[in-house]
Design goal:
Blueprint lengths: L1 H16 L8 E6 L2 E8 L3 E4 L2 E2 L3 E13 L5 E5 L2 E5 L5 E15 L5 H8 E2 L2 H9 L5 H14 L3 H9 L10 E3 L1 E5 L5 E5 L8 E7 L2 E2 L1 H5 L1 E2 L5 E5 L5 E5 L14 E4 L1 H12 L1
Parallel strand pairs: 15-18
Antiparallel strand pairs: 1-2, 1-10, 2-8, 3-8, 4-9, 5-6, 5-7, 5-8, 11-12, 12-18, 13-14, 13-17, 16-17
Length: 271
């Protein structure tokens, strides 16, 4: 049966991705030994998840949907629902706004590594990601100007970024982004759920140590976030304006700062 269904699901994925996309907020939450992937699904929409490699706990917190099963049957789900899902893909029609949790037992906190281990993503999905990659040449040019102003070389900045002696993981909690491929340079912070103006996105430096937000947040001449001190020496990444999360299978906005402002903040704190 799976050999028959696989190309059908791939064709369905391509069809759905060709339709108008709606917000599909994904929040990544961590507690000791647990990773929770919280997805909010909009009413009156068809949804299709990635292929899950392993059985895991599912919790439907709210909403109502019709699940299309691989044997051709349908299941009506109305929250609250708690179940163990077997490996495979989920396809459903969402009748009412639904909040769905995938719960995994793990000590890993890097979402990119978790997705590589937990999920199989099709080439159809990967092609869509590449299609929505925005050319950020203006930001790269302004980064070059920043280096010139500060008399820095790209090699020096890269070495500083790749120095992991002062790097720590994020504190336990919930985050609306993940580390992913940047349209500006290397890796970046990619928004996976809508972030409001003034919202604290993540800590960037705690007790003199950099978090991944301190390492991977890229530069932009028109940033959507800034580094802010809490007055005790710690630095947090805060939204300067609303930042858009995922639309269906499309990636959200990259979270960026102006390195000039970030450097000035570091100078003030070091005085």
């Amino acid at each position: 049966m799976s050999a028959v269904l696989k190309p059908t699901l791939n064709n369905l994925e391509g069809l759905l991705q060709g339709l108008p996309q709606v917000p599909a907020d994904c929040v990544h939450a961590f507690a000791p030994g647990i990773y929770i992937r919280q997805v909010t699904l909009q009413a009156n929409t068809f949804v299709m998840g990635h292929h899950h490699r392993h059985a895991h706990l599912n919790i439907m917190l709210s909403g109502r949907m019709t699940m299309f099963n691989t044997d051709g049957t349908r299941s009506e789900l109305c929250a609250p629902v708690v179940c163990v899902a077997q490996p495979g893909r989920k396809v459903a029609y969402v009748h009412e706004r639904t909040v769905w949790l995938n719960v995994y037992a793990t000590t890993e906190t890097d979402v990119e590594k978790l997705e590589a281990f937990l999920l199989d993503k099709t080439e159809t999905h990967n092609e869509l990601q590449r299609a929505f990659k925005v050319d950020r040449e203006a930001d790269r040019d302004d980064f070059g100007q920043f280096l010139f102003e500060q008399n820095l070389t790209p090699e020096y900045v890269r070495a500083e970024s790749e120095n992991t002696t002062d790097l720590i993981t994020f504190p336990m909690g919930a985050y609306k982004f993940q580390i992913g491929e940047s349209s500006i340079e290397g890796k970046g912070l990619i928004c996976t759920a809508d972030i409001a103006f003034g919202e604290v996105i993540a800590p960037a430096r705690i007790e003199g140590k950099r978090t991944p937000a301190g390492r991977y947040t890229n530069h932009s001449s028109q940033p959507n976030a800034q580094m802010v001190s809490d007055g005790n020496g710690d630095i947090f990444l805060v939204a300067l304006r609303p930042i858009g999360g995922s639309l269906g299978g499309q990636p959200g906005d990259e979270i960026t700062v102006d390195y000039r402002a970030a450097l000035n903040l570091n100078k003030r704190l070091s005085q």
